[in-house]
Specification:
This protein has 16 helices and eleven strands. The chain is mainly alpha-helical. It is globular and about 75 Å long. The two termini are 53 Å apart.
Length: 471
């Protein structure tokens, strides 16, 4: 697509319209534009007219949505993740509905009917909204190119049922607290059969790093007092994991407490990461079974979700089922192999049902809010920009950093004490070393009952040898 190029400075600032004439080649319109938007629109319009004049081009009145979408997609030069998402939206949801429809024959009623049909098929409203946005973007390019007089995917305001903000309201985002993070990290390590996952989940919760940033953390960026977010590994389908800049170019250094620095350093010393064959870089965390990296679906479905909820997802021919466990050592040993459900003596209660790896980032933000962390520091840790006057005039000070690290350390110690009250040791070596020497009086045992819905895991001591209750 075309773009606006700023020229001059001060009162003499103007913009030129640059449009693509061939791969890697651009031309410039002779006009000078006062605004960036006007220059961008003129460049896009000129590109569209140029494509329409190409040999063999279909006359505008005979152009189908599929033909224009292919041209539009071929002219994009965006991040690999965005290109993959656009391709998936077009191929899986837009072409089945509009492939052979003439571009100028798409009506607003057709778009509304398609959106209603997608929702009725069971797709999440947020997903359908994203696909309609992609459709709107494609048709907006057709409007800019003079092929359409208006965009039929534009949402009409003030018509139909009045629902306000609730129309796009999604489910509540699940978050957890420091003790929940310790319990989930411990379970994840037990399910994976190694302590790497304990360190990984702990790092995500206490830093607010995104999943891709954690997977893409190189050993050279795991430093004494901070971790440097320099890239992420984005999972393309197909295409594997691709190194790319962090989302919104959110490069940053995240301060970490000494205990977290020590935990990560000991993990690196124990695993001695070597450069992976796919990217040639040494990453702090790697997948199981000799794999270079965790894949999001494999980790989320078979490690993280069962650790948080106590249930494995459905996988044909098996339905959704609880994690089968033997009681010793606490908090349980997975039963594997045939008839594992029949041989199990207990299963886990949920710590935080519905929690996802990205929910750990939400949890970190929630924890900082509870600690009354200044917004300027909170935004810095998460890689967000604080807008408005607060963003311009607020600045992070060393005192802010020290106070937050002290608060995080205090919450970490409290979480370990609470975990030690459940059991004095752990089958996860990294956690067992942290619990060693903590003399905490165990809480009184409470008996689990199916008549007590929503019973919190931390109120159940010691959860041993509980007969399996079924689904």
């Amino acid at each position: 697509m075309g773009y606006a190029e700023q020229r001059g400075s001060g009162k003499g600032t103007y913009y030129r319209a640059r449009y693509k004439t061939a791969p890697g080649k651009y031309a410039t319109l002779p006009e000078k534009f006062r605004t960036k938007t006007a220059a961008k629109q003129a460049a896009d319009a000129e590109e569209a007219r140029l494509r329409a004049r190409l040999p063999g081009a279909v006359p505008p009145e005979q152009l189908t949505f599929a033909q224009f979408a292919n041209r539009w997609f071929a002219g994009l030069d965006l991040a690999p993740s965005t290109m993959v998402n656009y391709r998936r939206h077009i191929e899986e949801h837009l072409l089945p509905a509009f492939e052979s429809v003439l571009l100028d024959g798409i009506l607003t009623s057709d778009v509304d009917a398609w959106e209603k049909k997608e929702k009725a098929a069971g797709y999440a409203p947020a997903s359908v909204k994203t696909w309609r946005t992609t459709l709107h973007t494609i048709l907006a390019a057709a409007v800019q190119g003079g092929l359409l007089s208006s965009n039929p995917a534009t949402r009409r305001r003030g018509t139909g049922r009045r629902a306000g903000r609730s129309a796009g309201r999604g489910p509540e985002k699940a978050v957890t607290d420091p003790l929940g993070a310790v319990l989930i990290a411990e379970r994840a390590a037990i399910l994976a059969g190694r302590e790497d996952e304990f360190v990984f989940v702990t790092l995500l919760f206490w830093t607010g790093m995104r999943w891709g940033e954690g997977v893409g953390l190189q050993t050279r960026y795991a430093r004494l007092r901070s971790v440097r977010v320099e890239e992420q590994l984005y999972e393309l389908d197909p295409g594997g994991l691709v190194p790319c800049p962090p989302k919104d170019d959110s490069y940053r250094d995240i301060d970490i407490p000494p205990w977290l620095s020590r935990l990560v350093s000991e993990h690196i010393a124990r695993t001695a990461p070597r450069p992976c064959p796919c990217h040639g870089q040494a990453y702090v965390f790697r997948g199981r079974y000799g794999g270079a990296h965790w894949r999001r679906s494999g980790f989320g479905d078979w490690i993280f979700a069962p650790a948080a909820s106590g249930w494995f997802p459905p996988k044909a021919p098996q339905p959704r089922r609880p994690v089968p466990l033997q009681p010793d050592p606490w908090p349980g040993r997975p039963v594997r192999g045939r008839s594992n459900q029949a041989r199990a003596e207990m299963n886990w209660l949920p710590v935080t049902a519905g929690l996802t790896p990205h929910g750990l980032r939400h949890s970190h933000k929630t924890l900082m809010a509870a600690l009354r962390t200044p917004e300027v520091l909170s935004h810095e840790r998460l890689g967000h920009e604080l807008g408005g006057i607060a963003g311009r005039y607020s600045h992070v000070t060393p005192e802010m950093r020290r106070e937050l690290l002290g608060q995080l350390t205090e919450r970490w110690e409290q979480a370990l004490d609470a975990r030690a009250a459940l059991a004095a040791d752990s089958p996860v070596p990294a956690l067992d070393a942290l619990l060693r020497g903590r003399h905490v009086e165990p809480r009184k045992t409470k008996i689990f009952s199916q008549d007590s819905p929503g019973l919190d895991i931390r109120e159940v001591i010691p959860l041993r040898a509980r007969p399996q209750q079924g689904a």
